[in-house]
Amino acid sequence: MNKRRFALLCPTALLACMALSAQAEVVNQFEVTMTDQLQLHSRTQIDNWYVSGYNRLSNEPSASPYQLEGSDQTWYFNGGYQRPIYQEVNLFVEAGVNSEYQDLATQRGFNVATGVKYQASSNLSVASKLTSVHKDSQAGLEHSLELSGSYQLRNRFNVEASYQIESVRDTDAQQVQQQLRVGLGYRF
């Protein structure tokens, strides 16, 4: 997509979102979570459509040659759609751009994900998510499966836990990595 077409598409998409928001309830969330990393997450939802942004600041320096110099952060900007399949169960699909690599056309990588979220009670939610992240041409695709849960303690505080299995391609070999995260979140 050339720059002129993209410049025309952005205002059109913004106007469409504003028109939708005039007719539908808009839900905005902003959350800060501290685990082994500081994570910032924002989400705006209009009916079943949503836009989310995610920024992860790591305590360890970045190993990626495509990150900004001295930067140890990763960001994602996704748009998605969720559809209720049962009373408390939602199926979702999303796609977006990320900071994983630089491409001549987009200057960024891209990712796609799908999953299921179960709202067990007003305080407890459980989710599973399958993600595919496109990186540079040598690394190809990275796949991950994540199981997560969140329990709302008070009006603004919640405890979060996630377990993630990733298939990562490192030069010539395929590696499987596992992560377990537990953190405390605060909603603004």
Walk me through the structure.
By secondary structure, the protein is mainly beta. Helices cover 11% and strands 60% of the residues. It contains 1 helix and 10 strands; from the N terminus they run αββββββββββ. It has one helix at residues 3-23, and strands at residues 26-34, 38-46, 49-57, 73-84, 89-98, 109-119, 124-134, 141-152, 157-170, 173-187. Mean pLDDT is 77; it is low at 1-11 and 65-70.
Overall mean confidence score, pLDDT:
77
Order of strands in the sheet with the most strands?
A: 1-2-3-4-5-6-7-8-9-10
The radius of gyration is 18 Å
Shape assignment: globular
Point out poorly predicted stretches. 1-11, 65-70
Residues in helix, %: 10-25%
> What kind of sheet is the major sheet?
10 strands, antiparallel, barrel
Q: What is the terminal separation in angstroms?
A: 36 Å
Label the structural class. Answer: mainly beta
Number of strands: 10
- Share in β-strands: over 45%
What oligomeric state do the depicted chains represent? Answer: single chain
